[in-house]
Amino acid sequence: MMIVVITGVLSYVSLLRVVRTRDSVMHTRDVLDASSSLLTALLDAETGERGYLLTRDSLFLGPYRSIRSRVDDALKSLRALTQDNASQQRRIDTLTLRAHERLALLDAAIADEQGGHEQLAVRLVAHSQGKVLMDDVRGLIGRIQAEEEGLLHERTDAEYAWRETSGLVLVLGTALAAMLALAVNRGFDRLLESRQRAHNDTQLANERLQDQALELEQQAQAARSAALAAEEATARARGALRSAEESERRAERLQAATEAFTGALSLGEVANLIVEQALAALGAQSGALAAVESDGGSIRVIAQRGMTSSGATTTQLSAPLPLCTAIRDARPVLLSGPADIAAEYPGLDSVHGADGVRALAAFPMATGGRTIGGLLVRFGMPHELNPADRAFMHALSRIAAEAFERARLFDAERQARAAAEAANRTKAAFLASMSHELRTPLQAALGFAQLMRGGVYGPVTGQQAEALERVERSQLHLRRLIDDILDFARLEAGRVRIEVEPVRLDELMQDVVRLVGPNAAKKELALTTKVPGEGAAVLADHQRLLQILLNLVGNAIKFTQSGGHVSIEAVGDESRVLIRVRDTGVGIPPDRLHAVFEPFVQVDDALTRTVEGAGLGLSISRDLARAMAGDITVESEIGHGSVFTVDLPRAVGA
């Protein structure tokens, strides 16, 4: 009896350990699922935002508006699941900040688009800050998942070890119980023989033997009951082990499906993956996936496996078919045998009978409260889905619907992007052609004006010479505007050629002073330069960098009153060089700093009335700097001037 009790206690302890380690494994998988859901939500947010910006179709904002709650739910789930892990909590704190910053950028871009600031919205999307934030998010999620994968490996090993221990205890307990029963039975036989012999001696001995036989029989019954209990416990443990293994396999399959859906982009790829995952999980022989058409009254088959073609791939949603019913009523349709099929859909044998179908199931695919399609699986033998199968298909349908919708949005975004790129190419070609056609007659007019002022066509009076000089200045200004528009068009089309080479700063400063020095002297401005040392150089295109500095210094001269100061100073370290153009001019209002680099933008109305320019110089300069792996930033204070800083990589050895 003691052996049975010990065996039972050990079995209970082993099973308890198995359950606890199983809970730890599921907890770790929950963390991995939550982190994957967070990354998927952020990617969906980017997809919705870009789709809206490119198409201006508010349909893309439908899924986007639910993103923030999905992100917050995923972060909340991660924080709750890892509350006993300090390092993970710190990562989640940082991840929360980055995710909210990314959502804020997306909100800002959409707000700019809705407010009519299309160019500002596009610039905000093209800015590298969004990519940096997403790279940080992916890195943080990667580190969270890496640590959880390590924990998952340790806990899985522990679970496996306790399963083996539990099985060993059950086997040993059963063997000991069986040996005890055998020994008792043999003792019982010997006692019966002794009783028979003692019966001939005395009645008193016979009664004692009967009492002993009864006691031994009770012991034997107890031993048999213990053996039966041990067998039942073993069977239950095996059933629990099979259920746990099946749950683990389904969880792994869902995880694999999620990863596969994340990598697939086109509708066809996603649809084929969904059908393959469903068939493999349920052991079905064939299946198909259909999507609801834009008219809402019909469905179209996107992917199928193992099905005989029936001609048309588009079917009215009102048709008496299991898949149509599942999509129309937003509920699963389960037909486990031929009798169920004939009772629910009498005419269905002509559709599925040719493929030898004996059972089928159809599940709706819904996302955001909207059914977007359905999934059909068919079996060659009568088959009834158990609760675990139905739960798996519900989860797969939900994940598949989200992946399918994401792929559909990606296709729409890709088409919109192609249209936008074509429009950009057309615009660039138009601007280039217009600039060329305008520059040719302007150059001729400028030449004639210079010839007339020089007296080639006869003497001119002082007033006529002054008027001709004004004509020349206006034509030169107009030519500069055309050149700016042409540069802007080339930058927009990505056709600007950049030849990066070491550019010496001292020589560059001399070129700038030689070209703009007369303008500074004319306004009685002090123009100074300073370089880090002889031979200091940056990696840049010499002509483009000269164009940037001429524009920045020219602006500083234009916006600085007579008697002021303009300086060009270069400082740097081993990897970067900062070229600062500083002036003592009027300064830029704080609320306009963010807009000075936008195309066709002047600082304010007062300046546009007195200062020439189309508002393209700073935009072109920043784009050129970024094309050379650099950037331009600005700091300013009203009444104290501005500082424009050009950040460029330093030339090796300079």
Question: Your description of this structure?
Answer:
The protein is an alpha+beta fold. It folds into 4 domains: 2-263, no CATH class; 267-414, Beta-Lactamase (2-Layer Sandwich); 418-493, Helix Hairpins (Orthogonal Bundle); 501-649, Histidine kinase-like ATPase, C-terminal domain (Heat Shock Protein 90, 2-Layer Sandwich). It is built from 17 helices and 13 strands. It has helices at 2-55, 61-65, 67-81, 86-114, 118-126, 128-199, 203-263, 267-282, 322-329, 338-344, 349-352, 387-453, 462-493, 505-522, 542-558, 605-610, 617-627, and strands at 286-292, 298-305, 314-316, 333-335, 359-367, 370-379, 501-504, 526-530, 537-540, 565-572, 576-583, 631-637, 641-649. Strands 3-2-1-6-5-4 form a 6-stranded antiparallel sheet, with helices on both faces. Strands 8-10-11-13-12 form a 5-stranded mixed sheet, with helices on one face. A hairpin with a 3-residue loop joins strand 12 (631-637) and strand 13 (641-649). Helix 13 crosses helix 17. The radius of gyration is 41 Å and the shape is elongated. It starts with a helix and ends in a 5-residue tail after the last strand. Residues 605-611 have low confidence and may be disordered.
Arrangement of strands in the largest sheet: 3-2-1-6-5-4
Large-scale geometry:
elongated
Question: How many E strands?
Answer: 13
Helix content percent band: 55-70%
Q: Tally the helices.
A: 17
Count of discrete domains: 4
Oligomer description: single chain
Query: What is the C-alpha radius of gyration, as a whole number of Å?
Result: 41 Å
Give the helices and strands as they follow along the chain. HHHHHHHHEEEHEHHEEHHEHEEHEEHHEE
CA distance, first residue to last residue: 90 Å
Strand content: 5-15%
Query: Average pLDDT across residues?
Result: 80
* Model regions low in confidence, pLDDT < 50 over at least 5 residues: 605-611
Largest sheet, strands/sense/barrel: 6 strands, antiparallel
The assigned structural class equals alpha+beta
